[in-house]
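Lecture notes, part 5. Sequence design as translation. It can be helpful to think of inverse folding as translation between two languages: the language of shapes and the language of residues. The source text, in structure tokens, appears below.
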């Protein structure tokens, strides 16, 4: 990723190489995003960096300790909202990063498919989960959060 917020598009070859390396087909909306920007630096919100396609990987590869800690915590607080995390966390594809730094993540669930061949995206931060029906839905949620923050800050400067 470049040092600024500009990230050139991912090549078709790098997207295909990631799919082969991960053993999955990436969802259409995520591939469309990669064809425009290979990673992204987002101001605000919880998830600040989307990784270039060359760095996405199963969450458990770099975060086995975090995954184990989350599972232990969830076993104590058994909630019906948490079966996804318990069963598939290690195999979820980590889309945000940098890998192994921090505990705020955007994860692609390769086992749960919505209509239009879109995989579920789960964001997890400070022990809160949010599920999105596609990568586009995730970006729309992130944008809405950023716009709300901007409006809140604008009100503070209008006083």
């Amino acid at each position: 990723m470049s040092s600024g917020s500009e990230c050139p598009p991912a090549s078709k070859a790098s997207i295909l190489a990631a799919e082969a390396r991960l053993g999955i087909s990436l969802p259409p909306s995520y591939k469309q995003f990669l064809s425009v920007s290979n990673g992204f630096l987002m101001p605000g919100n919880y998830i600040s960096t989307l990784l270039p396609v060359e760095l996405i990987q199963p969450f458990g590869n770099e975060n086995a300790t975090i995954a184990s800690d989350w599972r232990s915590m969830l076993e104590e607080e058994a909630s019906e909202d948490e079966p996804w995390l318990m069963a598939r966390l290690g195999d979820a594809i980590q889309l945000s990063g940098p890998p192994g730094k921090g505990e705020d993540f955007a994860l692609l669930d390769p086992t749960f498919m919505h209509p239009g061949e879109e995989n579920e995206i789960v964001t997890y931060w400070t022990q809160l989960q949010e599920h999105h029906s596609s990568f586009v839905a995730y970006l729309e949620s992130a944008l809405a959060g950023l716009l709300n923050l901007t409006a809140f800050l604008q009100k503070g400067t209008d006083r």
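The translated text above is only one of many valid answers, since several sequences can fold into similar shapes. The radius of gyration is 16 Å.
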